[in-house]
Amino acid sequence: MNAVRHDDTDLRAEVRNYLRENFLFGEEAPRLGDEESLIGRHVLDSTGFLELVAFLESRFGVRIEDPEMTPENLDAIASIATLVQGKLAGADSGGRADAAE
């Protein structure tokens, strides 16, 4: 699958919208900051993380390997964006979007 270039702001907005539509309800949705812990805010549980990974892989054409499924990579919108951007950049430079880093 070809990687599609995404601006960091757009990528964060897409992740935030996904979280809002699938996990947040009411007034909490607009208040979720880029650096806030999705675990600490009780936005995602273990099943939610798997759903998030499936969304990221499908939407952005990347493969997230098991060792990459850590809170450091997936616990905040900012870290999610960094992970996906790194994978997309690797694909843009001739690497594969699904290659483990």
In short:
The chain has 101 residues and is an all-alpha fold. It has helices at residues 8-22, 46-60, 71-74, 77-92.
Can you tell me the number of structural domains? Answer: 1
Count of extended strands: 0
Q: Profile the largest sheet.
A: none
* Termini Cα gap: 18 Å
Radius of gyration: 13 Å
Element-by-element helix/strand order: HHHH
CATH class assignment: Mainly Alpha
Helix content: 40-55%
**Which fold name is given in CATH as the topology?**
Non-ribosomal Peptide Synthetase Peptidyl Carrier Protein, Chain A
Structural category: mainly alpha
| Unreliable spans | none
Q: DSSP helix count?
A: 4
If classified by CATH, what would the architecture be? Orthogonal Bundle
* Relative strand content: under 5%
What characteristic shape results from the CA principal axes?
globular
What attributes characterize this protein structure?
4 helices, Non-ribosomal Peptide Synthetase Peptidyl Carrier Protein, Chain A, mainly alpha, single chain, 0% strand, 101 residues
Please, could you describe this protein's structure?
The protein starts with 7 loop residues before the first helix and ends in a 9-residue tail after the last helix. The model has no long low-confidence stretch (mean pLDDT 85). Helices cover 50% and strands 0% of the residues. The protein is built from 4 helices and no strands. The protein has helices spanning 8-22, 46-60, 71-74, 77-92.
